[in-house]
Amino acid sequence: MKILVPVKRVIDYNVKPRVKSDGSGVDLANVKMSMNPFDEIAVEEALRLKEAGKAEEVIAVSIGPAKAQETLRTALAMGADRAILVETDEAVEPLAVAKILKAIAADEEPGIVMLGKQAIDDDSNQTGQMLAALMERPQGTFASKVEIDGDGVSVTREVDGGLETVKLTLPAIVTTDLRLNEPRYASLPNIMKAKKKPLDTKTPADYGVDVAPRLTTTNVSEPPVRQAGEIVEDVDALVAKLKALGAI
Ligand code: AMP
After folding, report:
1. Domain Electron transfer flavoprotein alpha/beta-subunit N-terminal, which positions (predicted)?
2. What is the pLDDT of residues 190-247, one digit of tens each?
3. Domains in the chain: how many in total?
4. pTM above 0.90?
5. Pocket of ligand 1, beta carbon within 6 A
6. Which of 183, 226, 228, 243 has the largest CB neighbor count within 10 A?
């Protein structure tokens, strides 16, 4: 079984994003970019399934600018076998990503497409669900446990009320949640080895997908600045303050 892992290049989670002064988006000039954290978890889970003898090949795919090669090399250094870059300078929306992934899945026939539950730049949480719909395959989203189970896969999902376990027939779509695993760091020898692993470059047109945006961003703004707190003398003062504010 092959596992296809889509990995997105996003602004690093440690960086505080700066909004452009004209409100048209986030300023990405000279900003550190990294693999979307949920996608690192997806790569890790795919590698663990391979190491447990449940999968033969892990293929990482990224849709984005030439620099997304770096993200793919990170996946290769973690242990993925090969990579596909679908190169475009457009900001690709989830629907177009899902269409491209569907075309790649038709070529590669993976048993599982393991995505992150969401990309931390657009917070869409749409691609996995759209891909499952387009492929007409079952989906297990927000996975906190994944187990290959005969001809299917059991996915324990983090839902509001607790945990829900679903069994999906393969091929299936799985999206990863934070508590699924702790991704490994790539060692220096593996980073060197990753440079020689195969990385194919394609374009959206190779898959017949039009990536022109369908959504228009009307405005992006910074969150409101948090008001400073106040230290009170004792509990009575705290209660009086809360009463004055109408909180109790
Ligand atoms: P989103 O629906 O944008 O929140 O993204 C959910 C997941 O879809 C991500 O965690 C990735 O696994 C995958 N994904 C989204 N955009 C891309 C992209 N441009 N390239 C590769 N994978 C992507």
Report:
1. 23-211
2. 999 999 999 999 999 999 999 999 999 999 998 888 889 889 999 999 999 999 999 8
3. 1
4. yes
5. 6-8, 36, 38-39, 62-64, 92, 94, 97, 115-116, 118-119, 122, 124-128
6. 183
